[in-house]
Amino acid sequence: MERSLMKGNEALAEAALRAGCKCFFGYPITPQTEISAYLAKKMAKAGGLFLQAESEVAAINMVLGASGTGTRVMTSSSSPGISLKSEGISYIAGSDLPCVIINVQRGGPGLGGIQPSQADYWQATKGLGHGDFHVIVYAPASVQEMVDMVINAFDKADEYRMPAMILADGLLGQMMEPVTFPEIKQKNSEKTWAADGHKNKRKHNIINSLYLQPDVLENSVVERYKRYDTIQENETDAENYLCEDADIVLCAFGATARVAKSAVNQAREKGIKAGLFRPKTLWPFPVNEINEAVKNAKTVLTVEMSMGQMIDDVKLAINCSKPVEFFGRTGGIIPTPTEILAEIEKLGGAK
Amino acid sequence: MAVVFDRPKALCDVPMHYCPGCTHGIIHRLVAEVIDEMGIEGDTIGVCPVGCSVMAYDYFGCDMIEAPHGRAPAVATGAKRAKPDSFVFTYQGDGDLAAIGTAETVHVATRGENIVVIFVNNTTYGMTGGQMAPTTLPGQITQTTPFGRDTSVQGFPIRVCEMLSTLDGTALAQRVSVDTVPHIREAKKAIRKGFENQKEKRGFSIIEVLSTCPTNWGMSPVEALDRLRAEMMPYYPLGVYKDTSVKEEK
Q: A210, A232, B98, B237: most buried, per Cβ within 10 A?
């Protein structure tokens, strides 16, 4: 297996190619543009299609069209661009189409900034568009996970016929790390629902999210939620680091989890029993895993690059059985291990 | 007994929801006849808009995708790029194509995307009950221009074929009408040319069809056709605004 030093955005793009992504539609926005630039160079050679759209709105609708024909397709953007895509994402979810969407988050709201952020947690997990729907949300914390998760995201999107999102951030997108590309077992999922021309061999397929009769619409949503139940049962993923005997369990995802891990190590050096719980899937949220991780803890400390968004899910997941505290920086500022350690000490995580 | 007139195969045998006297039915039929005649139903992907023809996916026998409002050209681009050997068409009204979807319309044309756009211009938003459209004529009374479209307030209508004919990616921009039998025959020829362009990979084709909306215009079907001739045709002259296939033949 080859090992190479790559930038997060480029590694993700390469992994998408290897995962059999055949179409990519994008629009430039910092800090994710390397994904487009990489695929512009490589996609055609790999027998795929790269197209720069006139807007984020057009890009996500091109995704809808390509996915409607049963083609593996991806788009990527950063926070303000994801807001623009949200209408299309709702239609894609409502039409039961698979696709992969990358959000390399930057600071917000509005035009915000171009430094790393995690302030799109709510958007990704709860409000990615109008209507009752979810997308599977993966939160990588390394360049290697950018690779592994995007490969998995394509398979899961196909399996469950729904969008999957990689919720990364500007730090992961821009940093370089050694990465290994795994052997990929191409899953040949037959897409009998695709609108790719019926060749006079079957009745026409219709890709659609319109149901004017309320009972029919309700049934379609309920059917989708049954799939969501299966996903919540089978697809949660998390890392548990030194939680078993921890008095204080930190909860963090993505790049923030790396900093939090350093703080946990520093705390341990000082004799404080700290641990880290890191969700790798944000939706479905790893409910059982977090309950297991905090069962012996006195306090939970959620650390995020936002004013506190995942903390809601942490409290819900553990049913507020422990005090859940928060530390975060926002606007593109990355919390330091020292800051987090000070917070751990303040909370008496010590003795 | 010989059958002299029948439903085109590419139209499904289902009742349509369109209002009495509406010209959508004729236009659907023309598209379906062209698909039948070219024998391409099995390779065609249709994209329907948001508006009166939103449910066209139930009427055309080919595979269909329903797009968000205004985004049919982007959806069609995705489908065509993913399946370059298929025939892809969109079927859009004036609000969908020339208001909320203007950016998608201009860019699908300038990219020279090998698709056909059937653009139904009836100068109003039919599905929502007759509001001002980008093609509503100066002085025209609608639900949202109750005193007539005042160009000093609401600006001017857009002439889509004229605008798109300036773009290098456009292969065919033609405005037709379905108010008389000769015009209907001409409209069908234009639609056929659009699909032939796609086959020959000549680029983007738009066929604008002047259409009526008796319900929201508050007219009988016959009065509506009279209005189409008396008021729409002078503002939106029929004709070929661009046709690159002619140059090739010379």
A: B98
